[in-house]
Design brief:
The protein is an all-alpha fold. The protein is 67% helix and 0% strand. Helix 7 runs antiparallel to helix 8, helix 8 crosses helix 14 and helix 11 packs across helix 15.
Amino acid sequence: MDTPLLAGKIAALSLGALPVFYALHHVAALSHPLGVALMSALILGLFFVSIYTLSRGEIYYDPLYAVFAVFAFTSVVDLLIALQEDGYMMGFMEFYTKEGGPYLRTAHGIFICYWDGTVHYLLYLAMAAAIRRRKRYRNLGLYWLGSFVMSILVFLPGNILGKYSSEIKPTFFLAIPYVLVPCWAGLKVFNQSRAPTYCTPIMVQEEQRKGLLQRPADLALVIYLILAGFFTLFRGLVVLDCPTDACFVYTYQYEPYLRDPVAYPKVQMLMYMFYALPFYGLAAYALIFPGCSWLPDWALVFAGAIGQAQFSHMGASMHLRTPFTYRVPEDTWACFFLCNLMYALGPHLLAYRCLLWPAFFLHLPPGSQAPHKKQH
């Protein structure tokens, strides 16, 4: 996969969010929630028109260029929100978090803003630059898709179900395109052609003849997936109020954040249990039996989702905006950090393995079959 340069034009335009929102902070009309929603929609519309005017060639070549450009602008806005809420800057986004999205002032909201303002922002610039240079960006797009969808699937239900459900503002409905556009973008990314693997049929046959014990890296990954699956199921049972002593001890001594009434940690653990847990089982199967060509793509999507989720969950568990009783106790901080860090790193190692040595997951050419192996 080529590593593209960053899109300078989009970077320059997106940084225009600083003077724009600094000026809007002093507009009296924005003290009303409806005014904030309408102004936000207007700014995004004007930004899209600017991008369309300046970059018609790139948009005609790939419409996702406009999507990445607009989302890059919103990433800068999110970074401003996070920096403001942590006290690193003032006079930019107070009107928005007060009248537009009070749930962004939670610890979870702050950390999804940090992730969007850094990781997503760099991904947008890289993918836009790839489009401009007519390069591939499918792998970057899959990682972004998983990360973006996970943040939406946790944040929006958490807003509705948590203690801020009574403070839903008109700007909440701006999330509708944030749900629809990634669905369309995801289809566009998946339909792009894959990068060539340069694996010959002989290489594929040789790799697929090996048993699991002959592939120590895959064996280690299978063991990790099994352990991660048990950890996922356990934390899902914890947020479902399982009455066992183990769940009680874990909740109060290791991750009291799972009891926070903001609802984000509960929704996150349920997302893990209903979506991550089945994937762990399927991924272990794909590492044992050859020819599961779906795994490299979905491993990237899954790595993006877990990376975003764990960053937000770990950060919010220790942030000062989380009430003291729900923060990780100091005497168990090392255990909490190690377990959650390994939970985040494992899917990235799986995606790296799939991209670096894809022969085991390729379909054998017609008429060829590795002995004693089942093809999928």
